[in-house]
Amino acid sequence: MEVLTRAEWHQLRDEHIARMRRFTGPHQERKLRKEKHPVMDFLFTYYSHRPVRLERWHPGPGVVLEDAAEYLEFPHYKATADGVTLDVESFFAQREKTLEFVRALLTATLSRPARLGCFGLHEWAMVYRQQPEEVRHNAWPLRLGSDGTDQVVEASRIQCGHFDAFRFFTQPARPRNTLQPTREDQVANEQPGCLHANMDLFKWAYKLEPATPSDLVADCFELAADVRELDMQASPYDLAKLGYQPVRIESAEGRSEYARRQAEFAERARPLRDRLVFVCQSILTVTSLR
Known about the structure:
- The structure is a single chain.
- The protein is mainly alpha-helical.
- It has one domain (about 1-290).
- The protein is about 55% helix and about 5% strand.
- It has 11 helices and 4 strands, in the order E-H-H-H-E-E-E-H-H-H-H-H-H-H-H.
- The chain has a 4-stranded mixed sheet.
- Helix 4 runs antiparallel to helix 11 (about 250-290), helix 9 (about 195-205) runs parallel beside helix 11 and helix 10 packs antiparallel against helix 11.
- The chain is globular and about 70 Å long.
- About 35% of the residues are buried.
- This is 3-methyladenine DNA glycosylase.
């Protein structure tokens, strides 16, 4: 067990708070102004981790915090002779199925090569043949208009394997997808080139809190924020007024840029997947030996 003095863990906690407030601060300010943001809101609305939870620091398993009685107010902590630490048995008892699912999903994803041919067309399929007032981000214009957007969908090969993206496709777009992913085949379908699968590392990280060390949660969140930027740059929306220059996936140059950045994100996500698998495996292994 690693033992951190109060001064040591306070420093780590404060550094984490400052790191996350670069995102939570602007989000809270926009919320007070009742101002929507089509790119960044996704990280706080689609994902259910509230800003106050994102700012909360956890050391992860195998660490004892000296003089940290306040942590006993949080679930899955216990007092020891040296201080406060994660109660691995309590966490396992409540999250066993989550641990096993996340380990299986991320291990399967790690075993596959990245597929880079989707070109972000899932966002286009989400607005295909919709009336303007039905479009999710209807405060922002479509770069090519409704007809031009539909033409791109109809001229493209849609091959989205991520269920949580596919479920938002419009009804006319669903038959155009070469895959028909379901929740049940998620482990069989997910692959490391998928933008949404890489954003979802943030979801798996916070669903495993407080067992996930907060530096790993923060790494996954920052990856999700960067991936989300490409996700919306490659979308049919015109977000130039917000400073997002489009990745024109309707052109050969745009598709090349998208695939290049997609591959970079896949490489950046790999060690984060490894670390999340290790979190799952370490708790499952420790509890199996007791």
